[in-house]
Amino acid sequence: MISDEDVRRLFQNGRAILAKHSDPNTPLPTQFHxxxxxxxxxxxxxxxxxxxxxxxxxxxxxxxxCFNCYKVVFEPRTVVELLxxxxxxxxxxxxxxxxxxxxxxxxxxxxxxxKGFIYCRGIEEGEEILKIVKxxxxxxxxxxxxxxxxxxxxxxxxxxxxxxxxxxxMTAMEYKEEWQEYEDLFDRDLLVNTRLTxxxxxxxxxxxxxxxxIMLAWLKYAATIGDISYLKISGLVLQPFSNxxxxxPFCPVEDE
Length: 256
Hints:
Layout: H1 4-21, E1 32-34, H2 48-59, E2 69-74, H3 79-91, E3 100-104, E4 114-121, H4 123-140, E5 147-151, H5 155-159, H6 180-188, H7 209-225, H8 231-234
Antiparallel strand pairs: 1-3, 2-4, 2-5, 3-4
Helix pairs in contact: 1-7
């Protein structure tokens, strides 16, 4: 079981790195990644997920590739649990080393505060990984952190609610073939036509300066939304972000 002290010590070690190498004027990153890079997944477009979201934003259609994209979604209840999930993702062993990330939710139209994702190709793989991680989560953090399987990106169901409906007895929404001409048009215009320069893997030999910056950003986010559990980790009051708005207020949870 990962303790509060484990993640407190991890952050305090990171603070020493930040003091030496971090520029206080540089925006803090907020997304922690591990596993293979999304852009090297089978049949992925050279422009990766950035290309798919650009197609959606331009034409209001869901790209073909995204119809077989599933995510195991974690919703930590506090920033302390998010930090513990980061530790789980760091050491988690999966057959395909699936892409996984932890974030704080900054999209104004998307509810929730803390999220974790494991990316899967197909609903069968998603269901298999869901079983694996539920067991790991109950052993390492808590049995009551919500973990679910969802399809694709959260922006898509805001326009096409049926896209989010998966599993029996619902019939999953299928790709509309007439959308292909919009995808072809987008690619012909060369709006996104080169492979991303990201590494094929997000794995690192331990935690980095960027990871320390991410942990600091998460704690500042917690201070912004009123999650005072961050004080267990930081040991001092942090300055909130001034430009983050959430669609629903943070609800404190009782210690187990």
